[in-house]
Amino acid sequence: MTKHRHPEKIKKPYNPIKKKPVWIRSKIIDTQTFFQTKAVVNQNNLKTVCQEANCPNITECWSKKHATFMIMGDTCTRGCAFCDVKTGKPGELDPFEHIKISKAVKELNLNHVVITSVDRDDLDDGGAKHFKNVVLETKKQNPNTTIEVLTPDFLRKGDSYKKVLEANPDVFNHNIETVPSLYLTVRPGSRYFGSIKLLESVKNIKPNMFTKSGIMVGLGENKNEIIQVMDDLRTANVDFLTIGQYLQPSPKHHPLQRYYHPEEFKDLKNIALNKGFLLVASSPLTRSSYHADEDFKKLKVKRDEQLECQQLQ
């Protein structure tokens, strides 16, 4: 009997997938490096969001030795309508995962690494301590590597998110994903203002830590709703916003309403920059950790420029 990746979607209506426009094309840059990255991931028995979430940028990113490691297993306890990560009852945490991740980072010689996870609502702290241990070990074995975490919302887990902050990552990322009106349909296990509050709390505790969030478009939102999300994220002092096109993983996932044109992404980027974000990445193929290495360098430059302007005032 075949085990379904998304048992919660079996009885969902069938939504045909719209044909992709010509401007959505993934690319491979260096075939040899792509397979080297794949070998390191497989040899260390690691999970990546690149594979588990069926990311369209995997060929390009792995060709540049960019991989986003996904910790705490490959099974999520939630069933978001947009996500392709497997859902169900997860297994036990790997007590050696912090060693495996730090080893892979060293083998790939990464300057910047993104560490994310599935949601683990089954754990008392949502996996925050495990997250902390992975970050600390990775920093210990790779002192020159900057670390970006892309965390769950730790909803109903109290202050457990503070354990992640104790590891002092360079970037704290938590995706808002979509507009408030679509949460019950698209992200039913999460709460919009809970995510906003998390990002705000992180910045209050660690004002010098870069904070980051991302949204998808094409789920059925309108432009005014997107702008409202921008305002809410700026109220939480989020530094970096990513905006990308939603790509429907299967006919049982949330239906894609429309593809945004590249010019629309440019327009959204300009609006977001005018609202005060330090950095905005906005394009059809933009994903949360897409070009994360290069973007982290840009963030540091932008903050230095901002501080210089403040000193001159």
Sequence-ordered SSE layout with sheet pairings:
Layout: H1 31-43, H2 49-52, H3 58-63, E1 68-71, E2 75-76, E3 86-87, H4 97-108, E4 112-117, H5 128-141, E5 146-150, H6 161-166, E6 171-173, H7 183-186, H8 192-205, E7 210-217, H9 223-235, E8 240-245, H10 262-274, E9 279-282, H11 292-312
Parallel strand pairs: 1-4, 2-3, 4-5, 5-6, 6-7, 7-8, 8-9
Helix pairs in contact: 4-5
Provide an overview of this structure.
The protein is α/β, with parallel strands linked by helices. Helix content is 38%, strand content 13%. It is built from eleven helices and nine strands. The strands form two sheets. The protein has a seven-stranded parallel β-sheet, sandwiched between helices. Strand 8, helix 10 and strand 9 form a beta-alpha-beta unit. Helix 4 packs parallel to helix 5. The N and C termini lie far apart (68 Å).
Q: Which terms summarize this structure?
A:
two-stranded parallel sheet; alpha/beta; 9 strands; 11 helices; about 325 residues; seven-stranded parallel β-sheet; globular
Short summary:
The protein is of the alpha/beta class and 313 residues long.
Report the sheet-strand fraction.
Answer: 5-15%
Q: What composes the largest sheet?
A: 7 strands, parallel
Shape: globular
Distance between the termini: 68 Å
Helix-strand makeup class: alpha/beta
Total beta strands: 9
Enumerate the spans where pLDDT stays under 50 for 5 or more consecutive residues.
none
What portion of residues is helical?
A: 25-40%
| Mean pLDDT across all amino acids | 90
Number of H/I helices: 11
Query: What order do the helices and strands follow?
Result: HHHEEEHEHEHEHHEHEHEH
